[in-house]
Amino acid sequence: MALLIQDGRRSGHLKWTTEAVQRRCADGAIISAFCTPRIPRPRQRDAGAVVEALGNAEVLFDPMTHARLMSGSNKLEDYDTWGLWGNSGIGLDNTTRRLEHVERVFNRQSELGVPSLAPTLTVSSGRSTEADHAIETARVARGLDRQCYQSLAGTVDFFASGTDLDAYVGRLAGLRASTWVVTLVPAASTNLVADLAASTAGLVGWLRTIHSLSFRSRVIAQNADFLGLLAAAAGADTVGSGWDRSMKIFDSSSYQLSTPAPRRPASYVTQRGLAAVLRRTIADDIQRLDPNRAQELRGGPMPADDGQQRVHHLRVVRELVSDVYRIHDQQDSVLTLRGLYETALGNYDWLNSQVPGLVSASERDSWVNHPLRALESYAKAEGIW
């Protein structure tokens, strides 16, 4: 089991990532073409420096083609340093473009000394033209490197499409890839975690996909964070996480230029016993209520600052995913995660019995109730509930 840190744009990202790997609360990193340049830029290290700094840790380079080809993606200052497209133009809609792009992606990965990871595009329906283009791109990649990792990026609607999804995943499984990197792409929203958690059919389909692919392949659940617990129960042995929203969940807005008003980022504290990340003000209230119980719920001392919270968060997610993942006994994985969620619900009940409304019903739903509902639906269908 492993936790890989997703890429980010903050100036301290490489330092924080390296420290997390050294402290063994992460096992490696995924470099994104949108976040790390091929050549150094002011206050930004290049991808080669990242690979060198992480030593023997696992490192992947994701060209993030599925993000580049999404409508509105225009935050390209780092992306354009990679030169991933040929003379025929940008897109995966014909044979020449697919071949030019995959060749360039694989060349960049070879330069870095990391595994070949095929590009893909975001699929919204298994019956769509884009779905066919994604399959054809995967086949081109396999033709160039039979050992390459493959990518699947799908919207919530795609993963909720029932028999259409099953048929498409069957086509993917036929590629016999050693490793699949799977990304769940939520609809654009101001509350991505809550909206995605409430998408039961989409989560269940995502789990079924991971389950099916894991019979033959390693599965990495990208941008998963706490939802990575569900992925681990379904058979993913690796999850992607981090400290910013765009690292914990696929956020289409992070690939778009914007001019937001200056604001001070909110501070959060991860609560292991609640399977949640809540505002620091709530963590302070819990600490005042019962310091010993508060430490038990957090899974460690109160992080004194955001730096300590980064380490605390990664350690908690990694430990929980490790607790859930069972390579030979999926029913035990489901039972472990079910117990974790049910214990968390009891902890929410206790907190709100002490201070009514301390943690809102919406937070409880987003972090525990909705994921538990998806787990139950998936596991019952598989006969392992």
Annotated CATH homologous superfamily of the largest domain: Copper homeostasis (CutC) domain
Radius of gyration: 20 Å
- What would the CATH topology of the largest domain be? TIM Barrel
Mean pLDDT: 96
CATH-derived architecture of the largest domain: Alpha-Beta Barrel
List unreliable stretches of 5+ residues. none
* Helix content range: 40-55%
- Strand coverage percent: 5-15%
Order of strands side by side in the largest beta sheet? 3-2-1-8-7-6-5-4
Number of DSSP E strands: 10
Report the span from N to C terminus.
Answer: 23 Å
Number of discrete helical segments: 16
Classification by helices and strands: alpha/beta
| CATH class category name of the largest domain | Alpha Beta
Backbone shape:
globular
Note the main sheet: 8 strands, parallel
Q: How would you spell out the order of helices and strands?
A: EHEHEHHEHEHHEHHEHEHEEHHHHH
Q: How many domains would you count in the coordinates?
A: 2
Structural summary, described in words:
Helices cover 48% and strands 12% of the residues. The chain has 385 residues and is an alpha/beta fold. The protein has two domains: 2-255, Alpha-Beta Barrel (TIM Barrel), CATH 3.20.20.380; 268-382, no CATH class. Strands 3-2-1-8-7-6-5-4 form an eight-stranded parallel beta sheet. The chain has a two-stranded antiparallel sheet with strand order 9-10. Strand 4 (122-123), helix 5 (129-144) and strand 5 (150-155) form a beta-alpha-beta unit. The protein is globular and about 65 Å long. It starts with a strand and ends with a helix. The model has no long low-confidence stretch (mean pLDDT 96).
